[in-house]
Recover the amino acids of this structure.
């Protein structure tokens, strides 16, 4: 597609439920990032995928968080047993090595845990 | 480790130039300086990038010091819509690893 697509755009879930957030990167982009942004805060790095290399998971805040990227394209971020502090906007970005603009971000998924 | 330092916040009067500084004293010879901005809760958007020469596009100008240890993003005539968080990042051109720091929250006031 023309841009990075994230779904859903908004998600309200009950505390303790599992959620899946989807990111569809720009076709051909080999790199993909997930960031989290709480209200009024900066971007918090979560995980980085680069091609077929092992992902950099150093930013995942707990073992309730996991992410995968199937076929080097679509990525899913899963949060198990959601907590209220998980409420935030989850942003995905993709890039290719040849992209002089660096990363293109999606519009994000706003997650609210009630 | 974002490798850059920026002031937390700045104000600018509408119609005046906004000058946003960034320090990147440990920048390597093959690292570019990139600037992005994030308006409200949208995803960050690319503004401009440069290696060592000053750059200008329709959005902004980028001034990089001769030693490349710092740079300044210039919005020549700031408008209220330029109120945003501005991120300065360094990146090896052919490397996808880019980490965002806290950025500078610019408020343009009427």
């Amino acid at each position: 597609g023309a841009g990075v697509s994230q779904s859903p755009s908004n998600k309200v879930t009950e505390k303790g439920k599992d959620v899946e957030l989807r990111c569809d990167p720009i076709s051909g982009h080999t790199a993909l990032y997930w960031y989290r942004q709480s209200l009024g805060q900066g971007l918090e790095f979560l995980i980085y995928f680069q091609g077929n290399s092992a992902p950099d998971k150093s930013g995942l805040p707990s073992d309730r968080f996991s992410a995968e990227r199937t076929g080097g394209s679509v990525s899913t971020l899963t949060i198990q047993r959601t907590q209220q502090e998980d409420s935030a906007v989850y942003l995905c970005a993709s890039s290719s090595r040849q992209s002089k603009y660096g990363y293109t971000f999606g519009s994000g998924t706003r997650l609210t845990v009630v | 480790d974002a490798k850059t330092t920026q002031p937390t916040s700045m104000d600018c009067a509408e119609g005046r130039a906004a000058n946003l500084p960034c320090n990147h004293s440990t920048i390597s010879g093959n690292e570019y300086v990139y600037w992005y901005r994030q308006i409200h809760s949208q995803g960050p958007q690319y503004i401009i990038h440069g290696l060592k020469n000053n750059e200008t596009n329709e959005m902004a100008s980028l001034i990089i010091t001769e030693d490349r240890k710092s740079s300044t993003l210039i919005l020549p005539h700031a408008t209220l819509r330029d109120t945003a968080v501005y991120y300065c990042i360094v990146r090896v051109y052919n490397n996808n690893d880019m980490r965002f720091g806290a950025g500078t929250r610019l408020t343009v006031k009427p």
The radius of gyration of chain A is 13 Å. Strands of chain A lie at 5-7, 10-13, 19-24, 31-37, 44-50, 65-69, 75-79, 88-95, 104-105, 109-113. Residues 22 and 76 of chain A are 5 Å apart (CA to CA).
